[in-house]
Amino acid sequence: MKSNNPKGQVILTVIIMLFLIVNLTIIVSSLVLTRHKTNKHNNRATFAYRLAESGINRAIECLNVTPTSTCSFTNLELLGTNNGVNTVTVATSSNTIGTITSTGNYQGISRTLKVDITTNLQNTLLTSDYNILAGANNLDIGNNQHIQGSVYVNGNIICGSTNITASTTPFTLTGTVSGSCPTTVATTTTAAFPQFDPEFWRRQASFGGSTTTTSISTTTSQFGPLEYLDNLTIENDVIATTTGTIYVHGTLTIGNNVKIQSHQSFNPRPTVIVARGNIISIGNNVELNNLLIASLASSSSASTISSFNNAIFNNVVFYAPDGIVELKNNTNNITVKIIGGGVKLGNSGAIQSNALSNFSTEYDITKWRVSDKSWREIY
Prior knowledge:
By secondary structure, this protein is α/β, with parallel strands linked by helices. It has helices at 6-63, 198-206, and strands spanning 84-92, 97-106, 109-123, 132-134, 139-141, 145-147, 151-153, 157-159, 164-166, 171-173, 177-178, 184-186, 210-211, 215-216, 220-223, 226-228, 232-235, 239-242, 246-248, 252-255, 259-262, 271-275, 280-283, 287-295, 303-308, 312-327, 334-345, 349-352, 364-370, 376-377. It folds into two domains: 1-122 and 367-379, no CATH class; 132-362, no CATH class. The protein is 18% helix and 41% strand. The strands form two sheets. The chain has a 25-stranded parallel sheet that branches. Strands 1, 2, 3, 29 and 30 form a five-stranded antiparallel sheet that branches.
């Protein structure tokens, strides 16, 4: 006997449809969950990869810090988080060949990159055959000055009227002479200014961090490498030792019984202090030892480096290629090199060169770089 039960058929149809819907929901949910897990894994892997990259870049930067590196390659944060860390191993098989292996780890996911590194020797600082090298803004010498060492002026020499003496080396110039100058030799050849890379030295300073602090007043202190984002004043009986490059974005003022010296590990080279502001002012019983003071300011008339009132400089280089270096009255007992767009020497001073014979302002730096096509992910 044939059964005819519409209700049973409807129930069966509903059950089949529910079964299909549930299975479809499970499949879609599984796909979504798998996609979510995959995306999450990929994001973590990307973060880990970036951490590994940052470790290599940081290692290259640190290897190129001069003269020594105190950088730490581990536990670098990525994108403001504190969950990502990297570990870097640097291995150099010679002075010119090496490898960097960097592992980034982000929330349990690791990526490891390896690169080959090579070097090229670069000269990054000043070398000059002249004790005083002045540009087109002339050399102006006051009365009662004694100058030792060679002098070259890409312009005119203007001398006072009395008691200006020099060593046996004649002054060389491209322009004219006025006043009671020592022996001079005319030339038509312009002396080239030594090159100086401000951005290189800013980066050296930045390895020690940056600060908005505008003064150093601790009686005895060490500072550097450090990038000062504003002006910097060092005064009032401070005795300071520079332990790395100092880069000042504003003006630099040093005064009132201050003594600054380079850390002994830098000898015979100087540590470098750079200022971008309108003037570097040095005065009132200041003593500077084994430093290079560089001004990036530009002026054809105003002093961009100015020294006054009983300053003592031992093995100091003043560098202001686009400005004027002025050593005012009573600047004695100094062993310096002066390189400026213009140079002014006030009354009653003495510039000595003998002590500079063992003083190098030239840094031969091994510059590490990543070899072409050597980036590889090893696991």
